Amino acid sequence: MKRLVSVLVLVCVMALTGSLLAEEVKSEVPAAPVVAAQPVPAPVPAPPKVDTGDTAWVLISTALVMLMTPGLALFYGGMVRRKNVLGTIMQSFISLGVITILWVLYGYSLSFGPDKWHIIGGLEWVGLKGVGLDPNPDYAATIPHQAFMIFQMMFAVITPALITGAFAERFKFKAYLIFLVLWATIVYFPMAHWVWGVGGWMRELGALDFAGGLVVHISSGVSALAAAIVVGRRRGHGIENMAPHNLTMTLLGAALLWFGWFGFNGGSAVASGSLATSAFVVTHIATAAAALSWMFVEWMHRNKPTVLGAASGAVAGLVAITPASGFVGPMPAIIIGLVAGVLCYMAVNLKTKLGYDDSLDAVGVHGVGGTWGAIATGLFASKLINSAGNDGLFYGNATLLLNQIISVGAAWIYSFVVTLVILKVIDWTVGLRVSEENESDGLDLSQHGESGYTL
Asked: CA 222, CA 194: separation in Å to the nearest integer?
């Protein structure tokens, strides 16, 4: 028994000694360094990816908008006298050439390039430098940058051509080419940046213009008013018969404008989705409503429903719905169209009382129609249609209407004053009007040495 106890004591002593030796060795071994936990790197966002469906829709829309300029040429060409048909068509057609080159050289950069002082784009994209085939998320994240660029080019092409309706049948072609360059550079490019360019002051203000009520129609319509005043009335205006020579051509032009406008407004969604669908639908509805309202009010006023009136009413509806097309639903579109037809008809008839010669009603249709459309956007816009927009007055937000009115006022003043100065400078240098003899002969022969018809 004693021997057993002695063995147990010896085992305990040895275990205790081993434990103490282990602690001593452990204390002599340096501790392993503590490694701080490395933060998990944030996932790198995938680069914007081109969507083929969106790209296809924008390219088709670009082609539709391009077709609108020849459509405008036919619309205006049919409304003038036979001796001026080629000269009038040429004023629209040549805009495709002049504005395209300006847009590539510096127009796109000034309109959409990196912002400078909230009033103009920089020159970083001159000659389309840096405008490639990858998307630009600031403007369109799912289509090539060049697709967005050329879509916007077609807006720039048709806008100055709209002004020609005010001085049709009496403007020198040489003066017109100079006017195209100066007006696009000093009026259109800055206004496009104000409204659509990232950093533009109207965009920062919160003004809404989905497809060009301010940029295209108010700028051109108000500039047309300045042109009609500066250029003066046609010789024989109010005395000679100046009826349209070919209303079938005018109606065909109106139909092409209506057709192309689906790309004008629907394409401004820069994607082939629900917003493009909504803009497409309300564009058609408002146009139909305006064609009917113009026709009926003219029927009551003149006892005849005219083809020219129906065509003009359709264009007035297209103009009025343009700024609102991405922000309103079908029922507001009907109201916008009905009011546009009546307002623009009244404006066209007012020119005779005010004494200016807006030959083809550019002021009454585009100036007045664009103004009504911009204001109507402030009334009827709804975030339920476009969450990137805003609610208007009838949806509880009076601020949007105020912003629209401020933008309309600024667009009116800027377009009128600058156009007035441009026209005065051209008049002092090369002259605006053709001579009395050339006006009597017609623009086709005097400016182009050709005749529209061989009879």
From this structure: 17
- Enumerate the β-bridge partners of residue 433: 171
**Secondary structure (DSSP) of 126-159:** GGGTT--SS-BTTTBTTS-HHHHHHHHHHHHHHH
Q: Dmax over Cα atoms in the chain, in whole Å?
A: 148
Query: Is residue 243 helix, strand or coil?
Result: coil
Q: Which residues contact 272 (CB under 8 A, 6 or more apart)?
A: 53, 54, 56, 57
Q: How far is the C-alpha of 368 from the C-alpha of 160, rounded, in Å?
A: 17
- Pairwise CA distance, residues 206 & 400, whole Å: 7
pTM of the full structure:
0.89
| Interatomic CA distance for residues 51 and 61, integer angstroms | 15
Interatomic CA distance for residues 228 and 215, integer angstroms: 20
- Token pair for 157: 């092409």
The CA-to-CA distance between both ends of the chain, in Å, stands at 146
CATH code assigned to 52-445: 1.10.3430.10
Which residues lie below 8 Å from residue 36, measured CB to CB, with a gap of 6+?
none
| pLDDT 10s digits, 19-63 | 433 343 334 444 444 444 556 566 656 667 999 999 999 999 999
Per domain, the residue ranges of the chain are 52-445
Tokens of 334: 């009907």
Residue with tokens 């669908």: 277
How many other C-beta atoms lie within 10 A of the C-beta of residue 98?
16
DSSP-based three-state secondary structure for 171: strand
- Percentage of residues in the chain with pLDDT exceeding 90? 88
Q: How far apart (Å, rounded) are the C-alpha atoms in residues 269 and 60?
A: 13
Spatial contact of 206 and 390, defined as CB atoms under 8 Å apart: yes
Phi then psi dihedrals of residue 116, to 5 deg: -125, 110
| Kind and range of the H or E run holding 138 | none
Please report how the helices 398-429 and 219-231 are oriented relative to each other, as an axis angle in degrees rounded to 10: 30
Is 306 in a helix, a strand, or coil?
coil
DSSP 53-114: HHHHHHHHHHHHHHHHHHHHHHHHHHHS-GGGHHHHHHHHHHHHHHHHHHIIIIIHHHHHSS
- Round to whole Å and give the CA distance between 328 and 333: 7
Sequence-separated (6 or more) residues with CB below 8 Å from residue 421: none
* DSSP label at residue 268: G
Query: How high is the pLDDT of residue 43?
Result: 62
Distance CA 320, CA 38 (A): 59
Name the region of 81 (left: φ>0; alpha: ψ -120 to 50; beta: rest). beta
Top pLDDT among 431 and 23 is at: 431
* Token pair belonging to 357: 């010669």
Token couple for 421:
């100065």
- The secondary structure element, H or E, covering residue 240 is none
